[in-house]
Design goal:
There is one protein chain. It is built from eleven helices and twelve strands. With 345 residues, the chain is of the alpha/beta class. The protein folds into two domains: 195 residues, Isopropylmalate Dehydrogenase, CATH 3.40.718; 132 residues, Isopropylmalate Dehydrogenase, CATH 3.40.718.10. Strand 8, helix 6 and strand 9 form a beta-alpha-beta unit.
Length: 345
């Protein structure tokens, strides 16, 4: 069986610790992999003078897939976000963030099972900022017909592939009538091709924030432009217990990069207590993308088994006293058991 060539991007802070966990889990499934390790973020700036070296982009283009750790972006100064640049240079236009309650780690918000589909290349993240006068800065929001239709089409196709029944466009078209109005109208037009198969509706982003907290089960797939998607996906992650449980994938026409949605957490880096579950679940998404649905199921079910039956292994952010390595090892052993017993096939 030929090996999948996967670029491994450890990143900054806790990145190397949790990405190593993801790597071990993937290997435990038996998926044949050749890893190509590259540096991005602060570590790359220090070594190469660039947060996103050219060889990283070219390597991902050649392999078509990467598993990535979080990177640190200076606030208000310093280098441009490696994440934003990576998404733009590879045109990873769709950011998918499944938000699902992890068994054994239920929260007061009830059972949550929704997917945030976020446009990944424009909006305020286009990076068009200017100082127009002392003390006056403009930041330009860019919404295009092309990008809006593309992400809407992706959301409806995702619903079809995963058997989901509803797509809700999230906007502020009552205020930004042209920009958000364009995003909404493109979604409405794309929805017409799925009438009778996928229900379509829309909601103001502020109303969504309230309704997610009150009853997240009202929603299935959320379709958002870039900034709203960034904010709402963090809010949604809070409903299931935090960013440490929320995986993510970035998809383009030719490449996909999988990563947790949390940051680099430099305050706990090197202490061995970082929660690896978000990256592990992101690795599961990667396996699915590579065509190994059984590996995807085994990883998700292994996480669920450990989170219910071995709570002592959980990291401190989840109320346990375990370590990154200890929790990873427990999940690895459960994956191996499932492989041996031919479960989830």
């Amino acid at each position: 069986m030929s090996k999948h060539r996967i670029v491994l991007l450890p990143g900054d802070g806790i990145g190397p610790e949790v990405v190593e966990a993801g790597r071990r889990i993937v290997e435990a499934t038996g998926l044949p992999v050749e890893w190509i390790t590259r540096q991005i973020g602060v570590s790359a700036v220090e070594k190469f003078g660039d947060a996103l070296p050219e060889d990283v982009v070219s390597e991902i283009k050649a392999c078509g897939v990467a598993l990535k750790g979080p990177t640190t972006t200076p606030i208000g100064t310093g280098h441009v976000s490696a994440n934003v640049r990576l998404r733009q240079e590879l045109e990873l236009f769709a950011n998918v963030r499944p938000v699902k309650t992890v068994p054994g780690l239920e929260t007061p918000y009830g059972a949550v099972d929704l997917v945030v589909v976020r446009e990944n290349t424009e909006s305020l993240y286009a990076g068009l900022e200017n100082v127009v006068a002392p003390g006056v800065v403009t930041s330009i929001k860019v919404i295009t017909d092309r990008a809006s239709r593309r992400i809407a089409h992706f959301a409806f196709e995702y619903a079809r592939q995963w058997g989901r029944k509803r797509v809700t466009a999230v906007h502020k078209a009552n205020i930004m009538k042209l920009a958000d109005g364009l995003f909404l109208s493109c979604a409405e037009e794309e929805a017409a091709a799925y009438a009778g198969e996928v229900v379509f509706d829309d909601i103001l982003v502020d109303a969504l924030a309230m309704r997610l907290v009150k009853k997240a089960s009202d929603f299935d797939i959320l379709l958002l432009e870039n900034l709203y998607g960034d904010i709402v996906s963090d809010l949604a992650a809070g409903l299931i217990g935090g960013l440490g449980l929320a995986p993510g994938g970035n998809y383009g026409a030719d490449c996909a990069v999988f990563e947790a949605i949390h940051g680099s957490a430099p305050d706990i880096a090197g202490q061995g207590i970082a929660n690896p579950i978000a990256v592990i679940l992101s690795a599961a998404m990667m396996c699915h993308h590579l065509g190994d649905v059984t590996a995807y199921r085994r990883i998700r079910k292994s996480v669920a088994t450990i989170s219910q039956e071995q709570k002592d292994k959980l990291t401190p952010d989840l109320g346990g006293k375990g370590s990154t390595v200890g929790l990873t090892e427990a999940i690895v052993e459960e994956v191996r058991r499932r492989v041996k017993d031919r479960l989830d096939e």
